[in-house]
Amino acid sequence: MDRRPARSRAHVLGALERAVLDALWSGGAADVKAMHRVVGVPRGIAPNTIQSTLERLVRKGLAGRRKVGRAFVYAPRLSRREWITDELDALLAEARGPAGLLLAAFVDLTERAGAERLAELEALVRERRRRGGRSS
After folding, report:
1. Is the domain defined by 11-76 classed in CATH 1.10.10.10?
2. Where are the domains of the chain?
3. How far apart are CA 92 and CA 100, in angstroms?
4. What percentage of residues in the chain have a pLDDT greater than 70?
5. d(CA 39, CA 115)
6. Using CA atoms, how far apart are residues 109 and 119, in angstroms rounded to an integer?
7. More reliable by pLDDT, 118 or 93
8. How far is 87 from 76, CA to CA, in rounded Å?
9. Distance between CA 29 and CA 72 in Å, rounded?
């Protein structure tokens, strides 16, 4: 069974949802109290706001939860790389224009980030060609 959520732009994340998901990716599974210490306290956000945010991520299919004792422990349902791939795939599907336009915009953004990033992109393309187009 594919563990990825069904894609739609309804999965666009707000700033707090993204911060919580980033914390799950970085620190691993956590309960509301632990997530509040990492994300809520620095922002002056109440624990119930963090809990609501985690529940939104569960409803969006981006996080899962399991009961441990009296608390739920939340974990991401997909890796950061899978999420980025899904977001780019959804963006490409919504662009409704030639795929080359989106790819050109991506290359432009990469180039603006600096010569190092452009060289990194070129190296990735060379590596994929070498492997016959298979992703890792």
Report:
1. yes
2. 11-76, 80-130
3. 10
4. 89
5. 34
6. 13
7. 118
8. 15
9. 10
- Nearest residue to 62 (alpha-carbon basis) of 70, 53, 71: 53
The structure's pTM equals 0.73
Mean pLDDT value across the chain? 87
Over residues 46-67, the mean pLDDT reads: 96
Rounded to the nearest 10°, the torsion over CA 65, 68, 73, 78 is -50
* Burial category of 22 from C-beta neighbours within 10 Å (exposed 0-12, middle 13-18, buried 19 and up): middle
Residue 40 token pair: 């809520």
CA 8 and chain centroid, separation? 14
118 in Cβ contact with 111 (< 8 Å): yes
pLDDT digits over 61-107, tens only? Answer: 999 999 999 999 999 999 999 998 888 888 877 777 777 787 888 88
Extract the tokens encoding 9. 């732009």
* Both structure tokens of 110: 């990469």
Structure tokens at 105: 């915009």
Owner of token pair 């970085």: 26
Average pLDDT over residues 1-20: 68
